[in-house]
Amino acid sequence: MKIIKIKFIQALLVVFFSFFKAQETIFPDNFSLQSPKYEVKVYSKSNLNVYYQVKFSNNINIPESKKETLCILQLDNNYSKFSDYKSIQQDSIFEKFSHQERIGGKEINQLLKVKEIWTNIVFKNKLTDSLIIQDKAKDRYQYEEKLPVFKWIMSGEKKIILGYECKQAKTQYRGREYTAWYTDKIPINNGPYVFGGLPGLILEIEDNKKHFHFEAIAVNQKPNDIYVRNDKSIYKVTRDKFRTVLQSYHDNPGFFHGKAYNTDGSQMSVKSNPIPYNPIELE
Which fold is adopted by the domain 2-229? Predict the structure, then answer.
């Protein structure tokens, strides 16, 4: 593997994505920020890319309200990466701007137009039988664990997806029940998110409450870098710790937006309304 050092505008993401997430923000051309560095670890190049339409409900109070995005599963013989396609577009822009000492309002506005919707990144390493998961509360966190072992129940049902005959299989994973459609015409033991363990590529999978739905809509064989961000700003924690942070963030997001102080200099307790959410992993 190789290490590529490029500049990453961490300050921009921390400030602007946290505070102006729900509204359009335009910055003047004379505004500028220095671009701090970050590292990208490149493991391989993909020999197959599968594009999935992802629809999911992240608000448990309004499960019928869905977000929608395009994700990509990049595959080679030993590694794979599943992420929002916009996160790759973001990184491409970061690399372009990394050769500048500072970035101005024009560059910042360009970055703000590309926002990932599915924030979870799953990197699978078959050589070590492990996962690297990166996700966000306010900041980006990373944890590692073993590849899950799924107990699939096969059925005789079939359907066609992207011209491939697919077979049905069902499983449970961390509090949800799933129905998957896989094709043995592409004999790859993999699928979107953490899913895999079938005698063929999973082209569609959905939980029984219809909160999370992944469906393949295109494939190609264009070689792309399979990489994982490795900048120093990423908090490397355990899965339990990340789940605690994520719950705390949604219970009181104001606490994560910085410290406030009383007139006497004492720290003020920052309270804000909770944000309802609906994690894909309930357990």
Answer: outer membrane lipoprotein receptor (LolB), chain A (2.50.20)
